UniProtKB/TrEMBL annotation:
It comes from Acuticoccus sediminis. One of its GO terms (cellular component) is ATP-binding cassette (ABC) transporter complex. This is ABC transporter ATP-binding protein. The keyword Transport applies. PANTHER family: SPERMIDINE/PUTRESCINE IMPORT ATP-BINDING PROTEIN POTA (PTHR42781), SPERMIDINE_PUTRESCINE IMPORT ATP-BINDING PROTEIN POTA (PTHR42781:SF4).
């Protein structure tokens, strides 16, 4: 069983704690993504798992083999960890053909000729590059080079696959296709995988679970749907997908719902994970796609706002409207753009999450 267990990991550079005491487990065959803004400690974590960097504290083990343990001084060098690593720069050997690129790591491991040939054919088949076996890297596109880099890693059957922004050099269209393909490949091979990205769409599309990082810590670890629907703080609600933040003051609570005064006699009922006393300053996050347009005849219900359209943006499959109600400004997603600048919108009572303001700072 190749389960990766990382506990109490700390890595400081001068006075910056790049990784500040993180714990996570990647189950056998699982695809886990470390997601967060630039500088949050993702690559430092990955380098620690790969053995390219020595952490200050903590413990790392794979399938029961201890790679690193600060307490007992264990540190297994990277070449003895049998980990597959793919970075954004593919670093194929330019003077070797695709086949020779794949063969090299196998020769290093003293694998016999017949077995080498078999594994190379398997790996090229997996990444759909069989017919390019005799080409040199310069005669391949970026996406094809990336596939070869992956094949070169898979060929020696690593117990763990580490991918650091491997798709970021590809253009948007190719990147989306590579995503689907990579996900398919990973589940086919069944290798335990840690993926690093700052791209939330990529993380949502690829992962079994996502560890959201901020300031060297893991702030939420859950499956993509939970991270998107139930972000545990305002940072995550803002970072994953797109959110409106409506600022206001709690008027009262009723069960799991709070009534929020948004100013200028606008009120909103929204779910709150915790009870809040009247007077608490809050931010309510609402996704643009959760807000619906309503006809004037439905304009008197709860959570319906008269808004003015400030801007319309056409995005192909849908439009976004930048609207204003009182002091609050927010974005609304809609299929068809309404006529006129004065419309009504509805925020369902189960939409949005209420975060106390002090908790986000
Ligand atoms: P991410 O991969 O999330 O962008 P990193 O792990 O690369 O973040 O970096 C986390 C923090 O550690 C950043 O503040 C970065 O500047 C710092 N850092 C990373 N590597 C070094 C290093 N070798 N020397 C000094 N500071 C570093």
């Amino acid at each position: 069983m190749a389960e990766l267990v990382v506990s109490g990991l700390v890595r400081a550079f001068d006075d910056v704690r790049a990784v500040d005491g993180i714990d996570f487990t990647v189950r056998d065959g699982e695809f886990l993504t470390l997601l967060g803004p630039s500088g949050c400690g993702k690559s430092t974590t990955l380098a620690a798992v790969a053995g390219l960097d020595r952490p200050d504290e903590g413990r790392i083990s794979l399938g029961g083999t201890v790679f690193f343990d600060a307490a007992s001084g264990v540190f297994v060098p990277p070449e003895r960890r049998e980990i597959g690593l793919v970075f954004q720069s593919y670093a194929l050997w330019p003077h070797l053909t695709v086949r020779q690129n794949l063969e090299f790591p196998l020769k290093l491991r003293r694998i016999g000729r017949a077995e080498r040939a078999r594994r190379i054919e398997d790996a090229l088949g997996l990444v759909e590059m069989t017919r390019y076996a005799d080409r040199y890297p310069h005669a391949l596109s970026g996406g094809q080079q990336q596939r070869v880099a992956l094949a070169r890693t898979l060929v020696y059957r690593p117990g763990l696959l580490l991918l650091d922004e491997p798709l970021s050099n590809l253009d948007a269209k190719l990147r989306e296709r590579a995503r689907t393909w990579l996900r398919h490949l990973q589940s086919q091979v069944g290798v335990t995988t840690v993926y690093v990205t700052h791209d939330q769409a990529e993380a949502l599309a690829l992962s079994d679970r996502i560890a959201v990082m901020n300031g060297g810590k893991i702030v939420q670890l859950a499956d993509p749907r939970t991270i998107y629907d139930h972000p545990s703080d305002a940072f995550i609600a803002d970072f994953i997908g797109s959110s409106n933040f409506l600022c206001g003051t709690v008027l009262g609570s009723d069960g799991g719902t709070v009534r929020v005064d948004l100013g200028e006699r606008l009120e909103l009922n929204a779910p709150s994970p915790r009870p809040l006393t009247p007077g608490t300053r809050v931010r309510v996050s609402v996704r643009p796609e959760q807000i619906g347009l309503v006809t004037p005849s439905d304009a008197n219900g709860a959570n319906v706002f008269a808004v003015e359209i400030l801007e319309r943006t056409f995005l192909g499959a849908h439009n976004t409207l930048e609207v204003q109600a009182g002091e609050s400004r927010f974005r609304v997603e809609c299929r068809a753009v309404p006529e006129g600048n004065h419309i009504h919108v509805h925020i369902p009572e189960n939409a949005g999450i209420v975060f106390p303001q002090a908790a986000d700072n």
